[in-house]
């Protein structure tokens, strides 16, 4: 699924989002922020107070009895497609066998009564599976299933058109939820799952029109997969892979181990807006080897304290950021609602660093440094074309690599109080940079070419932002750090119209 930072050289939202009573998430390392409290708004406070399901069976529904082991799976088998099932209050169980599961039929609806729980007992791998379309799951808690790594518990087979609303999908191994095309995940709690809250991956890369709205995505990757498989790129609150068209809005994404939201490999046409992203161990958002996105009106605070501090303590000079754009950019030839990556109207407060735009000069189609094995860009489907001599000339010289280009960063507020983050200057960096190209031997991107392009030639622009705190700016490569005057001056000419204050409280 891709190496996390993919370096190879070493890899204004409303301020009324104040904090209230704690949710009860557990604290771990000393460097980790205090567990996040519930926001004083309607943003996704769903784990603690989910709305109750129907107290009585809807007309025509099949009633499922928690006292009968396997009742849900059996009644699903014996009922026609389009049946509504009402799960009585209580703990429902499948047969105590690893592959016992509910194989849904097209149009089925599963409704939980108040207190209805489908519990895998740490025995069953999967809860709901099958390829049937347009299945709905509402008001149901699904917990303690043990899906393997990279697999999921709900919609295991990535069927299309599923709707998951007012559900709690929690304390499972693997991913709590997989995704299919036209899937809607709304007002649900994706909590404490071993790998992801949701793994938005489908075999064949056919996810289109995904909506993730008003959910609380908290405390996922409890099995700490990056530690178990270093560099696996397989963790976080939600991981998106080759999704074309996604609306990610109004979610509360917090206290996840690793990244909060991570779009990796040929994603396109994302709108990420009005979310509250906070206290994730790693980046709040990573947008990697992907295209065309609008990231706006999000509140992003207290992210990357664990991972950023860990790298700094090792003496690593790379600007690990809370919003990380890696080999991703706007591309007019890829159809979307925008032809840029536009990052605006966001509040970034007391994170470990700000925004990094990065390219790995050694990562391109057909290169051994391309950790998305077998994949090429959306402009060149056949990786074999990206080889000498053709790759050294137009159009393949440009089209065989994912380029960080056409990124506009404007009208954001970047606030940093180092006494809150407990850091020095290394936690207040913006960056636009690349490594020097070194391999493979036939690479046309050796030397400074990519670093010069991303810094000066690919239309990456900061402007009209507000900065408070000790910010610095890393350009071209990790050896060049600028102050705000140098950043605004020739040849970089960044942050025209922006304002700078030395302290966050000024």
Characterise the protein shown here.
The chain has 506 residues and is mainly β. Helices cover 8% and strands 31% of the residues. The chain is built from seven helices and 41 strands. It has a 13-stranded parallel sheet, covered by helices on one side. A 13-stranded parallel sheet has the order 5-8-11-14-17-20-23-26-29-32-35-38-41, with no helix packed on it. The relative contact order is 0.09.
SSE inventory with pairings:
Layout: E1 19-22, E2 37-39, E3 62-64, H1 71-78, E4 84-87, E5 90-93, E6 102-103, E7 109-112, E8 116-119, E9 128-129, E10 136-138, E11 141-143, E12 152-154, E13 163-165, E14 168-170, E15 175-178, E16 184-186, E17 189-191, E18 196-200, E19 207-213, E20 216-218, H2 225-228, E21 236-240, E22 243-249, E23 252-254, E24 261-264, E25 268-273, E26 276-278, E27 285-288, E28 291-296, E29 299-301, H3 305-313, E30 323-326, E31 341-344, E32 347-349, E33 355-359, H4 396-399, E34 407-410, E35 413-415, H5 418-421, E36 429-434, H6 449-457, E37 461-463, E38 466-468, E39 472-476, E40 481-482, H7 484-488, E41 499-501
Parallel strand pairs: 3-4, 4-7, 5-8, 6-9, 7-10, 8-11, 10-13, 11-14, 12-15, 13-16, 14-17, 15-18, 16-19, 17-20, 18-21, 19-22, 20-23, 21-24, 22-25, 23-26, 24-27, 25-28, 26-29, 27-30, 28-31, 29-32, 30-33, 31-34, 32-35, 33-36, 34-37, 35-38, 36-39, 38-41
Antiparallel strand pairs: 1-2, 39-40
């Amino acid at each position: 699924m891709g190496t996390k930072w993919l370096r190879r050289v070493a890899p204004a939202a409303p301020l009324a989002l104040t904090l209230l009573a704690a949710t009860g998430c557990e604290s771990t390392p000393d460097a980790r922020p205090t567990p996040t409290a519930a926001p004083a708004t309607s943003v996704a406070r769903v784990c603690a107070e989910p709305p109750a399901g129907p107290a009585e069976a809807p007309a025509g529904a099949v009633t499922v009895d928690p006292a009968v082991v396997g009742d849900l799976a059996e009644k699903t088998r014996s009922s026609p497609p389009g049946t509504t099932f009402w799960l009585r209050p209580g703990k429902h169980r499948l047969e105590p066998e690893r592959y016992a599961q509910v194989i849904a039929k097209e149009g089925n609806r599963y409704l939980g009564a108040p207190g209805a729980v489908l519990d895998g007992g740490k025995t069953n791998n999967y809860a709901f599976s099958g390829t049937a379309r347009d299945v709905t799951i509402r008001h149901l808690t699904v917990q303690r299933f043990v899906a393997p790594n990279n697999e999921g518990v709900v919609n295991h087979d990535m069927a299309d058109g599923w709707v998951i609303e007012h559900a709690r999908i929690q304390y499972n191994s693997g991913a709590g939820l997989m995704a299919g095309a036209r899937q809607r995940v709304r007002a649900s709690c994706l909590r404490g799952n071993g790998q992801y809250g949701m793994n938005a991956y489908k075999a064949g890369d056919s996810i289109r029109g995904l909506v993730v709205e008003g959910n609380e995505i908290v405390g996922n990757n409890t099995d700490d997969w990056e530690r178990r498989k270093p560099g696996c790129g397989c963790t976080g609150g939600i991981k998106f892979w080759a999704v074309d068209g996604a609306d990610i809005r109004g979610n509360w994404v917090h206290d996840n181990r690793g990244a909060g939201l991570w779009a990796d490999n040929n994603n396109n046409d994302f709108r990420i807006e009005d979310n509250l992203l906070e206290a994730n161990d790693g980046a709040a958002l990573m947008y990697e080897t992907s295209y065309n996105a609008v990231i706006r009106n999000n509140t992003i605070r207290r992210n990357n304290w664990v991972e950023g501090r860990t790298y700094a303590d090792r003496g690593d000079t790379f600007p690990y950021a809370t919003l990380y754009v890696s080999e991703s950019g706007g591309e007019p030839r890829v159809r979307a609602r925008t032809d840029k990556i536009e990052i605006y109207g966001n509040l970034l407060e007391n994170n470990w660093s700000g925004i990094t735009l990065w390219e790995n000069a050694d990562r391109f189609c057909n290169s051994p440094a391309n950790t998305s094995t077998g994949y090429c860009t959306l402009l060149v489907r056949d990786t074999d074309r990206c080889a000498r001599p053709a790759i050294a000339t137009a159009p393949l010289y440009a089209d065989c690599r994912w380029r960080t280009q056409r990124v506009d960063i404007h009208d954001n507020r970047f606030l940093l109080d180092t006494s809150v983050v407990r850091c020095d200057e290394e936690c207040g960096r913006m960056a636009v940079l690349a490594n020097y190209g070194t391999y493979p031997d036939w690479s046309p991107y050796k030397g400074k070419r990519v670093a010069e392009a991303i810094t000066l030639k690919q239309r990456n622009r900061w402007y009209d932002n507000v900065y408070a705190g000790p910010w610095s700016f890393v350009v071209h490569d990790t050896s060049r750090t600028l102050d705000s005057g140098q950043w605004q001056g020739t040849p970089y000419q960044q942050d025209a119209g922006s304002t700078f204050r030395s302290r966050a409280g000024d």
